[in-house]
Amino acid sequence: MQNHLKNETSPYLLQHSENPVNWYPWCEEAFDQAKKEDKPIFLSIGYSTCHWCHVMAHESFEDEEIARILNQYFVAIKVDKEERPDIDSIYMSVCQAFTGSGGWPTTIFLTPEQKPFFAGTYFPKTIQNGQIGLKELLLAIHEKWKENKEGILESAEELLDYLKTNITSGNPDFSKKSQEKESEEYLIHKGVEQFKAMYDPRYGGFGEAPKFPVPHNLLFLMRYYERGNNKVFLEMVEKTLLQMYRGGIFDHIGGGFYRYSTDAYFLVPHFEKMLYDNALLILTYSKAFQLTGNELYRQVAEKTAKYILREMTSPERGFYSAQDADCEGEEGKYYLFSNSEIEGLLGEEVGRKFNQYFGMTEEGNFEGKNIPNLLHDPLMGEVIHSYMTAVYEYRKKRYQLHLDDKILTSWNGLMIAAMCALYRVTGKKKYLHAAMDAQIFIWDKLREKETLYVSYRKEKRGQKGFLDDYAFEIFALLSLYEAALDPIYLEQAKALCEKVITDFEDKDQGGFFLYGKENEQLVLRPKETYDGAVFSGNSAMAYNLVQMFLITGEPKWKEKAEKQLAFLKKEAAQFPASHSMFLIALLDHMEQPDKITIVKKEKELPEDLSCEIPLHTTIHILEEETKAYPLKKDRTTYYICQGKSCKPPTNELVF
Predict the structure, then answer these.
(1) Which of 192, 379, 477, 539 is the most exposed, fewest CB within 10 Å of its CB?
(2) Least confident of 21-25, 398-402, 413-417
(3) What pLDDT score was predicted for residue 327?
(4) b/e sequence 383-414, b meaning 16+ C-beta within 10 Å
């Protein structure tokens, strides 16, 4: 049978379009049906490459018995968290309030008025290891709804009141705990001390397993190192970058990084690959290469970019969202090898050396198979890499790997910024062209006047954009401005900043709401400030507004930047290490980065000029000379300021 998801474009919703569950997408029809039939809502939120979403789908949503209970007693709604981050944010906070943690699949029970009254994540079909099963839970809630609906409605109102008080102002974990006015310097110091306390000196990374890359934390530590040349922080970054590359979290055969490591030493990953992780890691390895000159970091960034351009780029030049961890129902199956398999492919002698190089053994390092890795510090090198194409092509033909081929504005913005950075540190134009092509795609397919849209797939675009879409697209435009040295990108960034201020700003309390005036108005209007796997839209806007002021010098951008920083200072006070992008913005506000003002004489600037300018340098382009910035010798002139001193104007760019 087919349900109400059959005409959706989301790969996640389409995965459930032939379930026996009579799923609806999030729509008025579903809520009207619930009111008409006096049924509670069963809301399930996930995404197409989520392993435990697959497990729950196979166990429960494809099961006739569970479907019969859901269809009889509930109205069931499916939501793709990547297309509706507003719904995901609200009901994830509900899940965290109920359980103390969150994750996907997210399972929420609502009244027909969208008010939550119970929440969890994954539930097995029936009771398992002491955990209630979905069957028992559904029947219990049905009985409760039938016998004491008034009590449920009352508890839903109480929960909503709690969430309005504790969630909507910012991050629920930190926003209310510390309102003291910390100094900017103290916040920076507190953040780096927290990173030092969490750092794993043996294996790199922060905290215990599972370990996530969280590249923006590394970007902050590099920025902090640049500020004071404290090598301890650079060593923390380098240890982490090296260990991640050498471990199994990096795909040594096909390039790119997996989602996270399930262990402390980065060997066994969760095998899904996300566009945003790889974008931020390209950005981080590019920065590390420019900072240290270590060629390995450039190679890792380029191997990752090669993977993106080969497997994650649409014919129209937008970037796809994700590749699945599961293959034929087994996590990681696509990526794993046996020794005999490699020896059969490459021949016994070469295969044995290949296996040895990548730490692969007869007994295997993961469920009897092998994850290629370099953690054992192999001695061989270039000869082995000449066989990589053969292994890659063989792997590609063995099994089919699910691709989430929707194109998200926010994640594309991050990849555009990453490609710009990689171009600037390598001088290879293919990366700049990839960034510019993706920007054309966004402007053509995901924008109407000044309004952005969330997603695009099969010639259909999704909802009107949320804060992250605007913030990350502005981040991309500023990166393109710096890389292409074309003021048109700066003008586009300015227009989108104005749109964010008009549609998303909380004029009274500060900060920006997750959804704007043009979006559907839900039961709560949250602000997200915490930097998770990706930095928050509020952190990104702090960075963007600071950069707008540094580039233009216009007072209005200074005022907006300082207002946003003041808002985030309160949010970050308890645990600033969880707000690393905000800390970068704060550092830039406190101590301005190096700045170059380019006064143009010729119509075209020298080719690849931005590749000679270090990353994180403020670039200001003047189309003609001014009283403050006259031309020298009637030629294009460069004014360079480093630290608190400025060099004499010059016609030759030298840093």
Answers:
(1) 379
(2) 398-402
(3) 84
(4) ebeebeeebeebbeeeeebbbbbbbbbbbbbb
pLDDT-based confidence at residue 128 (cuts at 50, 70, 90)? confident
Q: Which DSSP category does 57 fall into?
A: I
pLDDT of 173 > 60? The answer is: no
361 in a structural domain: yes
For 86, 110, 445, 515, the CA distances from 113, given in Å and listed in that order, are 16, 7, 34, 19
Asked whether the beta carbons of 139 and 69 are under 8 A apart, the reply is: yes
Predicted local confidence at residue 486, as pLDDT: 96
pLDDT(57) > 80: yes
Residue 645: beta bridge partners? Answer: 642
Q: What is the pLDDT of residue 379?
A: 59
- The boundaries of the domain holding residue 385 are 327-401
Give ∠ CA 27-29-34 in degrees, rounded to 5.
105
State the helix-helix crossing angle for 295-311 and 231-246, rounded to 10 degrees. 50
Q: How does residue 496 score in pLDDT terms, banded at 50, 70 and 90? A: very high
pLDDT > 50? residue 178: no
185-231 pLDDT, tens per residue? 999 999 999 999 999 999 999 999 999 999 999 999 999 999 887 89
| Residue tagged 């910012």 (tokens) | 170
Alpha helices in 9-106 (DSSP H): 11-15, 28-37, 51-56, 64-73, 85-99
CA 422 to chain centre: 18
Whether 557 is in a domain gets the answer no
DSSP string, 253-320: TT-SB-SEESSTTS-SEE--EEHHHHHHHHHHHHHHHHHH--HHHHHHHHHHHHHHHHHSB-TTSPBP
Q: Which pLDDT does position 172 carry in this prediction? A: 43
| Domain end marker among 351, 369, 401 | 401
How many Å is the maximal CA-CA distance in the chain?
88
Q: How confident is the model at residue 168 (pLDDT cuts 50, 70, 90)?
A: low
- The verdict on residue 429 lying in a domain is no
Task: Say if residue 562 is exposed, middle or buried (CB neighbours under 10 Å; 0-12, 13-18, 19+).
Answer: middle
Q: Are 29 and 77 in contact (CB under 8 A)?
A: no
Backbone angles phi, psi at 261, to 5 degrees: -100, 135
In-domain check, residue 301 = no
Whether the CB-CB separation of 373 and 242 falls below 8 Å is answered with: no
Residue 534 predicted with pLDDT over 60: yes
Q: Which two tokens stand for residue 198?
A: 């969490």
Exposure of 70 in the CB half-sphere (CA atoms within 13 A): 27
Residues 265, 243 contacting (CB under 8 angstroms): yes
Q: How many domains does the chain have?
A: 3
Residue found under tokens 């003047």: 622
86-107 mean pLDDT: 89
Token readout for 14 is 């389409």
In the listed set 340, 370, 401, which residue is the last one of a domain according to the structure? 401
Nearest-angstrom CA–CA distance, 2 and 550: 55
- Average pLDDT along the chain: 92
**SS3 annotation, 450-472:** CEEECEEECCEECCECCHHHHHH
Instruction: Look up the CATH number of the domain holding residue 82.
Output: 3.40.30.10
Name the strand (E) or helix (H) holding 131.
Answer: none
